[in-house]
Amino acid sequence: MHQSIQSLEKLIGAFILAIGIYAEVERQKYKTLQGTFLAPAILLILLGVVMFVVSFIGVLASLRDNLCLLQVFMYTLGVCLLLELTGGIMALIFRNQTMDFLNKNIRKGIQNYYDDLDFKNIMDFVQKQFKCCGAAEYTDWEKNEYHSCSAPGPLACGVPYTCCITNKTVLMNTLCGYKAMKLNRQAAQEFIHVRGCTDAVIIWFLDNYTIMAGALLGILLPQFLGVLLSILYVTRVEDMIREWNSSADVLLEGESTKPEIEFSTVGCCRCYPGQESSA
Hints:
The protein is mainly alpha-helical. The protein has helices at residues 2-28, 40-64, 67-93, 95-111, 117-129, 185-188, 197-207, 209-251, 262-265. The chain is built from nine helices and no strands. α1 (2-28) crosses α8 and α3 (67-93) runs antiparallel to α8. The two termini are 39 Å apart.
């Protein structure tokens, strides 16, 4: 079971890595602005590399009963799990600061909305999917140089069409958010979504708590089982080492010179079982 979990994590890591590499290759074709807020391809690549390397260490350690690699896998996975839990708890405790942090960074992304293809695609998807507009509210689009009320052109004081309340029976009007920021909230909500996207996403998660719980369980449970089974496996290997050394002591008790047992002399880089060659 231990090896099965490690193999599954390894496959997941390789899959995420492949998606990240593909996304980065496609992104490089457009040569968009390298934003610091969101780089999905880079994040997927890093996550995939970490998962693949850690899982590979675990599989190799369990196949070879290598105590050193087992401990590396166990502690690395434990630290990752602890960081995830700590981050989640801190985000809940300091939820107001977390919301402010998210809104601040989304507004930074809004400034480069038309230059950063990564952010634009994500923001358009979120605004359409969650029926929202901007970070905290629709007036956040004032931060964009094209949508600012002081800007020239038809986009001035308007919002992107993905903020609009769509009618599926007619063609999409890309200027449906025209001059929306000149209107008050009550008037604007007649044709655009005025709620901010951070609030909309959080409300969606609260309304769909079973999906959120399932996603968290799917992320944390394999890691928890990996740590637990690693502890049991390390304990088993240590017991095997002690039994091996005890048996060797009994068998060689009467000899004047005793061959050195592998685990007692060469550290954790060799595998169980074994005995040093007299040559």
